[in-house]
Specification:
With 192 residues, the protein is an alpha+beta fold. The protein has one domain. It is 20% helix and 27% strand.
Length: 192
């Protein structure tokens, strides 16, 4: 799988007259906005979803997917899955030159964590509370009670869980991210 990906990156770099490293990474700077849509969207776009997965389908991508499954899912959205470095444990989800998400893989190349920006859901302007409410409602996330939704002094967050996942929506200054990971099971030693 990985050799084909590297060959594809090299081919893209030759066709685009760039180095392999440039062709296989998103520009993560905020200077390159994604293509502007005709209407400035403030409500998340959740389609398409896959119903027969063990984990929540976030526009077709979910935990425990393989690299090729994630590539197919993000490809259907018009995004690319690219490796930001020589590591095979993280890959960027790119919309053009803009990173709209990050996928973390385990040693078996299965998704263990998703880090998605509102741009992944086609949101041009983020209203944090409305975004959190829409995501939690859509994916049936039970919100954790956090005093005033404050994680730290300068960070606003919304936490919740499903049967198998942990959700965290966090805003640090103007950067908003949705983090989804497998729910940690408490050991019998720590339970009272």
């Amino acid at each position: 799988m990985w050799p084909r990906f590297l060959i594809l990156c090299s081919a893209v770099s030759v066709l685009s007259h760039s180095t392999a490293a440039e062709a296989c990474t998103c520009d993560v700077s905020a200077s390159t906005p994604p293509p502007v849509q005709s209407v400035e969207l403030t409500s998340p776009q959740f389609a398409p979803e896959t119903a027969d997965l063990d984990y929540t389908s976030l526009r077709g991508v979910s935990l425990d997917m393989t690299v090729s499954e994630v590539q197919q899912a993000v490809g259907r959205l018009g995004f690319l899955l690219l490796s930001p470095s020589s590591t095979d444990t993280t890959m960027d989800i790119c919309n053009g030159q803009t990173r709209v998400g990050l996928v973390r893989f385990d040693e078996n190349h299965r998704v263990v964590k998703l880090e998605l920006s509102p741009l992944y859901f086609s949101i041009a302007r983020v209203q944090l509370r409305e975004f959190a409410d829409a995501v939690f409602d859509r994916y049936r996330v039970r919100q954790a009670q956090v005093a005033d939704d404050v994680c730290y002094a300068d960070v606003t967050c919304f936490r919740g869980t499903t049967l198998a996942e942990q959700f965290l929506i966090v805003r640090i200054t103007d950067d908003v991210q949705l983090h989804v990971s497998k729910k940690r099971m408490r050991s019998s030693l720590t339970q009272d």
